[in-house]
Amino acid sequence: MPNFDFRVDETIFASDAPQRARDYLPRLFGRLDPNWLENPVGPLARLWRAPGCELELIDLARVLDTVGRNITKRSVPEFARKVRELLRFKSKKSRDLLRPKSETSYIEAMAELQFIAVLSERASPIALAPLVPTDDFASPRRLKSPDLGIRLPDGDVTIEVTVLYVQALTFWRESADHLFDALLHGVRKAGVARSVNLRIDLGFNYRKIPDRQIREMVRQVVERPQGTINLTAKDGLGAEIAWRLVPILPSPKSEQEIPAALGQLPQDWTVAILGNATGALHGSLDVRRDEFVEEPIYRSLCNTLKTKRKQCGHQGPFLVVVQPGDTKLKAEWIEELLERRIWPDRDYKKITAVLIQIPRVSFDKASPGHKVIVSLNRNATNPATGALLEMLEGKKKFLP
């Protein structure tokens, strides 16, 4: 059981949020999947067991409670199914130095739940799988349906929620993982300490670099105290690896001596090791060039929207909510492609609008909040109605 006994003064949460999460989550999970509480599994188990993840669990409690209170009565079994599914997604191990390996299904499920919570501030109640008969919710052969539906004064609106993945960005992440993994193995084997900055072109794929070049990169990083190396694939994309030695300072005898020990660093050094170190790597990752990703993003966006338009299933307005699957995928890139290349194409006339969802990444009061950017299709067969436009623009709410 997570420890919810802490203060949330500097966060977006109310002072009683930890207690409410402590009460709500075990009660909900225990009712829907009591075995999970005894043996937590999957991505959610990491949050449940790992110290320091309490804010994420408090937010999860807020989202699930909000969804549960703002869905139609017929949607209750579907909500229960979604929560059980959330608890049972399989987890994968990762050696990633910079981020945990995220499971696609879990991310997509959370994207949908987070959007429902945001939508409920403007329209409620919300129907889950609105075109599926109630008796067929548990059927493996149930009808195709959009994820959500809302009823506005001038008609029904259906909504599909998805996460946009771009292979070029996946290659970028995988390349960073691979290079850092090779470097970590090298410095540990040699017993040296290095601070390494990788600057990688978006779309770069390490598989296009011969293994001997990567081994040579590792050799130079290990043998030379500082330097820069460039790796370039035949397609012109590449990576720049810059490194320098990490100072190893005498281990302080107490916490009070740490500032003085760090004060021994040269002015331009921000990383050091206190005490003895046998092979250590400090890594940072940046984008070097991003001008080559328009076509990969466009192809992924086209494929995603073509798949989601098949879920439409009714004649009213149809919205697709798109959440970037990588923090490097900028919302403005998606918005610009929609306006310039997607909406003029009649292949997408079934889609009334795309809503780009940018989830909150921090729970500090000063951090940016959850954001939804609206891009209307002016060539849509079923354009946004007056009530839908008022809702999307935040001018009017449709609540019970």
List the helices and strands and how they pair.
Blueprint: H1 17-32, H2 34-38, H3 42-49, H4 54-69, H5 76-88, H6 104-119, E1 127-128, E2 148-152, E3 155-164, H7 167-190, E4 193-200, H8 211-223, E5 226-232, E6 238-245, E7 248-249, H9 258-262, E8 273-274, E9 280-287, H10 294-309, E10 318-324, H11 331-342, E11 353-358, E12 371-376, H12 386-392
Parallel strand pairs: 3-10, 4-9, 7-8, 10-11
Antiparallel strand pairs: 1-2, 2-3, 4-6, 5-6, 11-12
Overview of this structure, please?
There is one protein chain. This protein has helices spanning 17-32, 34-38, 42-49, 54-69, 76-88, 104-119, 167-190, 211-223, 258-262, 294-309, 331-342, 386-392; strands at residues 127-128, 148-152, 155-164, 193-200, 226-232, 238-245, 248-249, 273-274, 280-287, 318-324, 353-358, 371-376. The chain has 400 residues and is of the alpha/beta class. It has a domain at 168-287. It has a 6-stranded mixed sheet with strand order 1-2-3-10-11-12. Strands 5-6-4-9 form a 4-stranded mixed sheet, covered by helices on one side. Helix 1 crosses helix 4 (54-69) and helix 4 (54-69) crosses helix 6. The longest helix has 24 residues, at 167-190. The protein starts with 16 loop residues before the first helix and ends in an 8-residue tail after the last helix. Residues 94-102 and 269-275 have low confidence and may be disordered.
